Amino acid sequence: MARGKTPSDPAEAEKLEWPYAWPPPWRNDRLVGHEQAERTMLAAQQSGRLHHAWLLTGPRGIGKATLAWRFARFLLAGQEQGGLFGGGPESLDVPADAPGRHLVDARSHPDLFHLRRSLNRDTGRMRAEIAVDDVRDLGGFMHMTPAMGKARVAIVDAADEMNRNSANAVLKILEEPPPNAVLLIVAHAPGRLLPTIRSRCRRLAMQPLSEETVVDLLGIHAPETKPEERRALARLAEGSIGRALELGAAGSLDLYREMVEVLATLPDLDMPRLHAFAERFAKRGEEANADWRSLNYLFDGWLKGLLRQAALTTEAAPVVPMESGLQARLLATASFDRWMTASEEVANLFSRADAVNLDRKQTVMGSFLKLQSATR
């Protein structure tokens, strides 16, 4: 059964785990843009030689967890379509009334285990890492006899959140894989995993979604957004529908516009405008923290785009109109090496601000000033 320490109210527990307005992966029946990955998993199931462990990799928010849940749903509730070993279905779709499907969607199926960060009862918040005790529970689950069908399925989401002890506990399971059990591991940065974990899994690398796919999905999951906003969010998210939805919900598009307005005054920075922009990060609280996280992502993405344009000598489509031609103008003011150095210094500033709790307003001010110094 899917486990995890939770409050007595299931709805409250799920809200802590999934605080978003769009459906979580275990209830999302829509996966677009990964047809080849689905065909790969389906072919493996139909071959009768299904690998015991799969590593689903790719950027955060592109649909890896959704695919893992689609496959788990298929294996546990798709018996009428062919079951675990053999059959002839053409997709991983499972009818809404299929026996056991509602149990999978509710994460209460006896042959399903969902390994993720659990709730810290002392603080009432989600733990920062996957606890090793939860992995030990997974080990016991994997060696039990299936209760309802032919297999047991476990989903690890995400492996990036395991500490060393948790990772070693998962490795022990992989070293002695039990029969009739499948482990689906979601990883945003597989290079950080133990090499021995990677070597024992069949890797399925998933690619970022196309801009058009992200735009279409925004229309489905965030229909209140305007068409031009969907396009802008899709470009900011770089192929991640999850990131696009998060940015939209956080109002990050307005933040990006303000950031670009300040950048557009380089090399002669408009200091009053910069002060006003940086002042919003001097505040504290959940909303201010969300703005700070968004700025980290947006500033980093903008700088990477600047360096990418310098290397490829091609201008990416602007996110907002005033951005058109801005990077080319700035690149003409300094060499690639100077911009590379400035970008690294800005990244270090943001990293130190989070590590040792530096003044956020001063961090923002200092970052823009470092970009200005590159032009002189």
What does this entry look like structurally?
- The longest helix has 27 residues, at 286-312.
- Strand 3 and strand 4 (125-126) form a beta hairpin.
- This protein is α/β, with parallel strands linked by helices and 376 residues long.
- Residues 82-86 have low confidence and may be disordered.
- It contains 16 helices and seven strands.
- Helix 11 crosses helix 13 (286-312) and helix 12 (271-279) runs antiparallel to helix 16 (360-374).
Largest sheet: 5 strands, parallel
| Spatial order of strands in the largest sheet | 2-5-6-1-7
Q: Beta-strand percentage?
A: 5-15%
Number of helical elements: 16
Helix content: 40-55%
Radius of gyration, in angstroms, nearest whole number: 23 Å
Return the average pLDDT rounded to an integer. 92
Distance between the termini: 62 Å
Question: Which residue ranges are poorly predicted, with pLDDT under 50 across at least 5 consecutive positions?
Answer: 82-86
Category by helix and strand content: alpha/beta
Shape: elongated
H and E order: HHEHHEEEHEHEHEHHHHHHHHH
How many strand units? 7
Summary, kept brief:
The chain has 376 residues and is of the alpha/beta class. The chain contains 16 helices and seven strands.
Which SSEs are present, and which pair or pack?
Elements: H1 10-17, H2 35-47, E1 53-57, H3 64-77, H4 101-105, E2 112-115, E3 119-120, E4 125-126, H5 132-142, E5 152-157, H6 164-175, E6 181-187, H7 195-199, E7 202-205, H8 211-221, H9 227-237, H10 241-249, H11 252-263, H12 271-279, H13 286-312, H14 326-331, H15 336-356, H16 360-374
Helix pairs in contact: 5-6, 8-9, 9-10, 11-13, 12-16, 13-15, 15-16
